[in-house]
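S1.2 Input.
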Amino acid sequence: MLIKLIIVIFLILIITSLFTALFSLGKNKGSGTKTVRALTVRIGLSLLLFILLLIGYYFGIIGH
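S1.3 Output.
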């Protein structure tokens, strides 16, 4: 149950970061560093979630 909660939290953070980048892009017409930072955070969170899923599958925390 804990792993499901962690996955949902990561997905919410990823979507929040994506929408932050979208609003920043619309507000600054793509010239701000906030957009790049938000997208970088999104990529980092996505990679971390992917690694956590692989580790969870390897150790049997996540089933087939």
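S1.4 Remarks. The first helix runs from residue 2 to 28.
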